[in-house]
Amino acid sequence: MFGISKEKLLEFPEVKYPGKVILIDDPMKAKNALRYLNHVAQVGFDTETRPSFQKFRHYNVSLAQISCEDECFLFRLQKIGSLDGFMQFLENPEVQKIGLSLRDDFHQLAKLQEFNPQGFVDLQTFVKDYDIADMSLQKIFGIIFERRISKHQRLTNWEAEKLTEHQQHYAAIDAWACQQIYNHLLAGGFDREHCPYVLPDPVHDPTEHTEVAEPAESAKDSANSAEAKAKQAQIAKPTAAKTPRKKKAATPTQVKPEAKTAAKSKPEAKTAAKPKPKTKTAAKPKPKAKTKAKAKAEANSKAKAKSGTKSATKPTSKAKAKSEPKATSKSESKRKPKLTSESSK
After folding, report:
1. Which of 168, 32, 20 is nearest to 89 (CA)?
2. Which residues contact 15 (CB under 8 A, 6 or more apart)?
3. How many CB atoms lie under 10 A from the CB of residue 263?
4. Structural domains present in the chain
5. 250-276: pLDDT as tens digits
6. Residue 294 and residue 138: Cα distance in Å, rounded?
7. Which of 92, 93, 108 shows the shortest CA–CA distance to 46?
8. pTM exceeding the 0.90 threshold for the entire prediction
9. Best-predicted range by mean pLDDT among 128-137, 149-158, 215-224, 286-295?
10. In what order do the strands lie in the sheet with 96-99?
11. Which residue, among 49, 22, 16, has the nearest Cα to 34 in the 3D structure?
């Protein structure tokens, strides 16, 4: 297999486009160019899209390059109006179109208008028959021609109002290079025996296990080994069947405790909901307020009762006072006769 490094590629001289560049930027120019190209046997094909430097922002195809032997047409797709004629050219099977990584080009062009591409050859598939491992246009061209295609203009704005001369020549080289690679390989110009860009064989790892070829078994030995393998397979079947049963038995035991724990969590919710009776006890101060009022009423009634009793006791004291004179009168009356008797004596 053949391949080349980037460092080696930078040593090659830069290739210049040797042909004429024709810019197609209006409907009339496009119509005349397509009328000519539909009668050409083979062309090189490529496209360019404005690069995006922002996430989630993409642009449509800006430029399509179609190269002949010594001239290249640059179609500015956003300025040629209707794309019907251009798409019909891409569907023309009589014109061979050589490109690279064509799937990406087809995907981008289909966003503008659906079409059925015909007559295309993809170099990434074609060069595999020549043991070329690299897939980029720059490296394939370097291996075959020992020339370097510059990529300085690749990330420029292809939707600019005017394309610079460097942009035009860079775009023309890509389409032209595809055609040159195909025709050179097809003509047998690539000498694989003397190509210096051979990829090294993969290094063998000595730590890797190497299998030793065993001597050929006889028919009897092979029959016996087949029977032994069949018996081992029969013995191994029950063991393989037992392992899933153990796993199935293990899963319910693991699930049940989780369900129990989930069920046990419900009483916790009930205990958390028990503050209701506490609120009832907290609401009992109302009767206490009633008892205070009653106590005040009773105290008032008692005070009134006491005042009544005092008033009632006053007459009793008067009665006692009245009664006391009576007693004194009786004693005096008793004493008086004694005095009288003594006086009479």
Report:
1. 32
2. 141, 145, 147, 148, 149, 150, 173, 177
3. 9
4. 6-186 (3.30.420.10)
5. 444 444 444 444 444 444 444 444 545
6. 109
7. 108
8. no
9. 128-137
10. 20-24, 71-76, 61-67, 42-49, 96-99, 120-122
11. 22
pLDDT of residue 48: 92
Closest by Cα among 150, 185, 143 to 167: 150
Place of tokens 């251009």: 86
Phi then psi for residue 152, to 5 deg, are: -70, -30
Positive or negative torsion for Cα 94, 99, 101, 104: negative
Residues 108, 90: Cα–Cα separation, whole Å: 14
Say whether 177 sits in a helix, a strand or coil.
helix
147, pLDDT greater than 70: yes
Q: SS3 of 28, please?
A: helix
Residue 214 main-chain phi, psi, to 5 deg: -90, 155
